[in-house]
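Q: I have 113 residues here and want to know how they pack in 3D. Can you give me a structure?
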Amino acid sequence: MLTINLVERLHNMTEQSYGVTFHRTYSGRDGCNCIGLSGSRTEINNVISKTINEMINYLFGESLEALDRGLYDEVHSLRLEVHANIQTLINYKQDNMGLDVIFYWPDIEYLAN
């Protein structure tokens, strides 16, 4: 089954980005225990943009191969997953932290493998 691990992709992208920190457990104003990214607003937006771009590239690459093998339902499921992940990423909450900010997603808990 084709799938995308959004948390893993965000975590990997922050490791490649200077100035953005990945938080496994952030308790936002609403008391959630969720993932977050802290740093400058610009750098966090760059991480989100790169993550979305990576998911879209994955979708196109995997879709072409899967369509060649006749896996139409797999491609449709992956497309829906990418769409849902993009919607999740752009619907973050944020808190100010002095000069920096933290973007967090109350609906995404970090689950260690």
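Q: Anything worth noting?
A: The beta strands are 21-26, 34-39, 93-97, 100-105. The mean pLDDT is 88.
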